Amino acid sequence: MALPIQNPSLTPASAKKSWFRRERSTEEMSERTLVSPLSLRRPTGRALYWLIFVLLLGTTVITLGPIYWMYTGALKSSTEIFQTPPTLWPAHPLWDNYSNAWNVLSFPLYFGNTLALAVGAVILQLVVSATAAYSLSKLNPAGKGIIQFSFFCTLMVPQWPT
Which stretches does UniProt call biased (Polar residues) (predicted)? Predict the structure, then answer.
């Protein structure tokens, strides 16, 4: 790696271009934001900034709300889950609910089955895809275009409806 030249006046102009980047103005160095710093000086720009902030904060709360409800629901007793009005935090957290779910529902067995299925699917997909990619790139089989088209079509369809 070459060191930058400390005194550019001692080198020719062509060397200066190759060693140094063009100096940027402060406008080019500023970050791009949804609301520019110039528009933040105006009242409408500040209002737009706070509107975007409130919308993003609301979206975050709406997104994280069910996750919070799931974790607090796991700590509640069955009567506390169905009580009206619902509580935001359990009165007496039951940490044993996690160990009960682990033992009663045979979670290790189901987790092992899921892990075996996922690992097998990944290995099978790698073997099929790698051999198909190699054969289609190195060989020239009959119907190569149709085979590639069908592979690409299956990549475009998400797995959920299939």
Answer: 1-12
Q: What is the pLDDT of residues 30-71, one digit of tens each?
A: 566 767 777 778 888 888 889 999 999 999 999 999 999 999
Query: In angstroms, rounded to a whole number, what is the distance separating the alpha carbons of residues 152 and 162?
Result: 15
What's the CA gap between 126 and 120, in Å, rounded? 10
Structural domain that includes position 149: 107-162
Question: Three-state DSSP class for 73?
Answer: helix
Same domain, 97 and 134: no
Cα pseudo-dihedral 23, 26, 28, 29, rounded to 10: 90
- Tell me which residue has tokens 């190759």: 18
Name the residue type at position 106.
S
Same domain, 112 and 101: no
pTM for this model (two decimals):
0.48
Q: Are 75 and 88 in contact (CB under 8 A)?
A: no
**Token pair of 45, please?**
């720009």
Residue 88: inside a domain, yes or no?
yes
Total of domains in the chain: 2
Please report, for residues 99, 106, 112, 115, the alpha-carbon distance to residue 109 in angstroms, rounded to integers and kept in the order given. Answer: 15, 6, 5, 10
Token pair, residue 65, equals 């709300």
